[in-house]
Amino acid sequence: xxxxxxxxxxxxxxxxxxxxxxxxxxxxxxxxxxxxxxxxxxxxxxxxxxxxxxxxxxxxxxxxxxxxxxxxxxxxxxxxxxxxxxxxxxxxxxxxxxxxxxxxxxxxxxxxxxxxxxxxxxxxxxxxxxxxxxxxxxxxxxxxxxxxxxxxxxxxxxxxxxxxxxxxxxxxxxxxxxxxxxxxxxxxxxxxxxxxxxxxxxxxxxxxxxxxxxxxxxxxxxxxxxxxxxxxxxxxxxxxxxxxxxxxxxxxxxxxxxxxxxxxxxxxxxxxxxxxxxxxxxxxxxxxxxxxxx
Length: 294
Prior knowledge:
The structure is a single chain. By secondary structure, the chain is of the alpha/beta class. It has one domain (4-226): Aldolase class I (TIM Barrel, Alpha-Beta Barrel), CATH 3.20.20. Helix content is 46%, strand content 13%. It has an 8-stranded parallel β-barrel with strand order 1-2-3-4-5-6-7-8, surrounded by 6 helices. The chain is globular and about 50 Å long. It is found in: Cytoplasm.
């Protein structure tokens, strides 16, 4: 079981949109040096929907190679076609990822039965343990707790990333799974602290891209039940949690990484670089977190 801060890694790109492989490897080492407990490669924050299959595969492989077994790598393998999601999961297994993260199929709006069958097929078609990913704000497809409980019984489905931000739903699921080894992760930085204090196992985090050490410390405190320390760290990071969503992810976090001197200002259409009117907002959040001086 992975516990703690799992970064939803942004994929560095050059100004012309090409993937910056050297910068990707530097980012991986930035996380290894700063306590990140796991890395999601080619998840939502990594912009896989703008990549070719070959690029998607290459990003996962590059992260696995650079990590070299030091922390777990979770490969983003979601797709709205079940056959494609299975293919991505199989490839992630071949290159040595430890888990795959499979998002609810987007755009086509399946029923709960369709979601159940989709994820069951992914689990049966992959050698990798599967972590479900529910983010209805992006997919228009919501995985209900009742369906999660059905999927808990499927071999090879081992966890859930819940990016709904709905703590009542999280509390219900945590209670139902008490005593289980099924892994429950927040996918919403703003509510992740409370999610973990209620019994969640960690946070698959956007904020961790820019504040890996602080997010690691926050997760350690929250998972261990140290409420005061968890809230203290979380208060300092809350401007980042909030404002890294000021435009669609990963627009703000890529600008923040560039502001910190870690990547070039590259992103792919249909996403665009952060609007100038928000530059000062993100800079102030970075300052409050102690990540830049001015």
